[in-house]
Amino acid sequence: MQTREKWRSGLGFVLAAAGSAVGLGNLWGFAYRSSQGGGLAFLLLYILVVLVVCLPVLVGEMVLGRSTASSPFLAPVQAAGESWKPLGWLFAISSCGILSFYAVIMGWTADTFFHSLFIGLPVDMVEASDFFGRISSGNSVFVGQIISLVLTGSVVAAGVRGGIERLTRWAMPLLFVLLLILAIWATTLSGSWEGYTSFLFKWDPSQLLDKTTIRNAFTQAFFSLSLGIGIMVAYSSYLDKNNKLPKEALGVASFDTGVGLLAGMITFPIVMSFGLKDVISESTVGALFIALPTGFANLGLIGRLLAAVFFGLAFLAAITSSISLLEVPVSSMIDRLGWTRRKAVWISTFFVFLLGVPSAISLNFLGNMDAVFNVFLILGGFLISILMGWFIPSKYDQDLASSNSDQGVRRYLKFMIRWVSPPVIAFGLIVSVIDLVQ
Ligand code: PFF
């Protein structure tokens, strides 16, 4: 039995968890989803879903990890018995499934970064679709996917402190500061105001009841917070008893929402200023890989430099997320099979690579993987809320009490995870499944 690693500090844990949350989902998902008509209504629903259902579940995952000091595969069984074994499997399948296509998109990101610096970016719409065709097909996709997976594997192989914490400690503050600078720069563009008011902050109250907007709010919240997949269980299993989990969960959720908003405040001014409005709502990846490179390219050499900064940051954000996805199967193999970290990393990385090959070849397949696994995340969140709220509610409360969390906060969380999260997530799950099969 190997001794369990620990985070160097509480802040290290929060930054690693924030690193997992902040990723490509913030950079493309937020902009894409609010451009589908939801605007401010989407944003409000998203914040509501985060506060009402996601925060109690996020704390639930953290408690599950910390109280069992066990990997996501074993923690549910250790906490509540053999009948919870399927939840461990769900975590393992979802994390490998998501990482398989996430690594492909990371590869496109790296390729766009490379084009910004050395080859050049598209300057009009004709060139733009050609550009996207180039980065998303052919052998370069495999190269990007392999580089992304090998880098991910190397960080995870270096361990919790020496790899994950060491990277996220400097990457997250840097990411936030640079995004803030880019967002301030974007306010100076001619179409900035129109960009905010036609998309991000467009107010149409009827959207509050729109099926797609509701599904978008749920999907974005779970995907963006890395919830329902066991990541926070894995990360919290390396924690000490004295971290105040509710406060830390709120910190992670606020940071994550802040980055999503900043990404929107960069994307929409560029889109409006360079007449790229139609691209953005057409496809999930349109904003990130078609509109933004074209917009940046229209600013000449300085634009290419800004594009390099932006796509470099996007890759950094992605890698702090992909390492957390890989940590789920890796920590599970170490605990369950007694493998060394190194062996677990490279075997699971190879498996994830094979699983990702169809997504690297077909955009359609990738889209379907994304849609299906988003539903898995919501299902995972639902099961966690049932586990913590109905099967082991005293463990939930005791763990929070032992770290001196405020009593009012504890009461709120206990009530929410038992009475509010399960029905609301079930509602989100049903709407998502209906929308998926339609
Ligand atoms: N939260 C990250 C993002 O928004 O890109 C990545 C991610 C991790 C997504 C884990 C989904 C997930 F289950």
From TrEMBL:
Coiled coil: none
Subcellular location: Membrane
Listed name of the protein: Na+-dependent transporters of the SNF family
Pfam families per the UniProt record, alphabetical: SNF
Transmembrane residue ranges: 12-31, 43-65, 86-108, 141-160, 172-193, 217-238, 250-276, 296-323, 344-365, 371-392, 419-438
Membrane topology field: Multi-pass membrane protein
UniProt keywords, alphabetically: Membrane, Transmembrane, Transmembrane helix, Transport
Superkingdom of the organism of origin: Bacteria
InterPro entries, sorted: Na/ntran_symport, SNS_sf, YocR/YhdH-like
Main location class: membrane
Annotated GO CC locations: membrane
Keyword Transport: yes
PROSITE patterns linked to this entry: NA_NEUROTRAN_SYMP_3 (PS50267)
